[in-house]
Design brief:
By secondary structure, the chain is an all-beta fold. It has no helices and eleven strands. The chain has an eleven-stranded antiparallel beta sheet, with no helix packed on it. The mean pLDDT is 95.
């Protein structure tokens, strides 16, 4: 990590729960495996870049995935805040390539759950061929985390479609 980069810092008055996503703050290099329709897995390159924003009351983390020729396949930004009064996470995904916003971790889909050392939430999928996506952050440490995406049509049967292994740079 370049010591000149400013990742911000949490505001001491921000809800303590914001620290749950603090592992995203910094620069990450990612290896992305995507399951093809054939069942085979194809590997891509990704990058994750997170920082505290809004005087340390929120976390913004940018994700990008590129193809073999360096072409942008995914480019977007997550905005993460915690509403202490309602004990509720508000997470938005902004897809820069098509200009859409998606609400992540909706209460109707179970909200944001912290299970042992993992973070799990589901969302309605506006772009992919499936109806729902479940995102799981796991293997979280100071220098690594894994993001696993699973698809579902009914919210009961889930099938992995993407695994992103990220290492801090």
């Amino acid at each position: 990590m370049d010591p000149k980069e400013d990742w911000g810092k949490p505001n001491p008055k921000a809800p303590a729960e914001l620290a749950r996503f603090a592992f995203l703050v910094g620069r990450w290099h990612c290896t992305v495996k995507v399951r093809l329709d054939t069942g085979a897995w194809q590997t891509f390159t990704g990058a994750w870049l997170g920082r505290y924003i809004l005087d340390g009351y929120a976390i913004a983390d940018e994700y990008r995935m590129t193809g073999p020729a360096g072409e942008l396949l995914v480019l977007g930004l997550n905005l993460r805040t915690y509403e202490a009064a309602r004990q509720k996470w508000h997470i938005k995904w902004i897809n820069a390539l098509n200009g859409t916003w998606t609400d992540l971790g909706l209460d109707e889909l179970g909200g944001v759950k912290f299970e042992r050392q993992s973070i799990v939430y589901a969302f309605k999928e506006p772009m992919a061929a499936h109806r729902l996506t479940r995102a799981t952050y796991m293997n979280i440490s100071a220098g690594h985390f894994t993001w696993r995406g699973e698809s579902s049509e009914d919210g009961k049967d889930w099938h992995p479609f993407m695994v992103v292994e990220c290492d801090k740079t």
